[in-house]
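Issue 218. Parser rejects a valid record. Input:
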Amino acid sequence: MFVLQELFDFCLLQSYTLPILIIKFFGNMLNFNLELKMHMITETTAHILGFLHECYLPCDTTTSEKTNTNQIIKHSAIDLDRAGVDFKEGKGRDQICVKFSTSCRFSCLRRCYSWFFQLCGKTSFEIPKLCLYDSTEPFLRNLIAFEQCSPSIPLHITSYTFLMDTLINTKKDVEVLEEAGVLENYLGASEDATHLFNTLCKEVVLGEFTFGKQWLEVEKYRKSEWPSHVASLRRDYFSSPWALISVIAALILFALAVVQTVYTIRG
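Output the parser choked on:
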């Protein structure tokens, strides 16, 4: 990389710095909110991929709680959506940073009645928007390969693709993330996006998952009693318009039966 810097320094007209030119040439291929780091390329930056990798890293990678992938229980996007998780587009200053949070207006009841907290609370899973183009897969593969060949750098891109692979199993998962603004699919069919993420991490070793803290919070929420009941209710009775109509019709018939019984007893 320093060779490019030396050649660039020979130029008489330097309207841009070398990092800015690299970004302009390669473009924002992942379409994240890319913010250039305020540093020049030095001799320690051995590869263009190294510079691009640094641009996509969060400002502080030391605070990430790493978890072994063998401890991860997979939950798809549609499963979490049915359990009450609201997927949102992350708009923070960090490039690849996910956030899982739960809030409640009735904070005083949070400790006493966890089920009430989960009923009234708002659970969100923020993930930065990713636009899927034909160039997305090879670009991610190059960044993953760079991380695999560089043991001293964090496996942040690999962890991100592993997270998306965990969330996406079918086209319904893609549709949930598209509706939430987390994905924009320009590949064509939803199956193409599913295939992309399901094949990116094949035969890739990911010893430590950098989004372990967030995912453990997801698992804790999903295992709790109320989200499990909500997920079962949505899956069994609200998975389609016809199922919803059947439930409403059954409730109406039940209400009419109760009213008729009351009038019969009083009459």
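Fixed in the parser; the record now loads. The mean pLDDT is 77.
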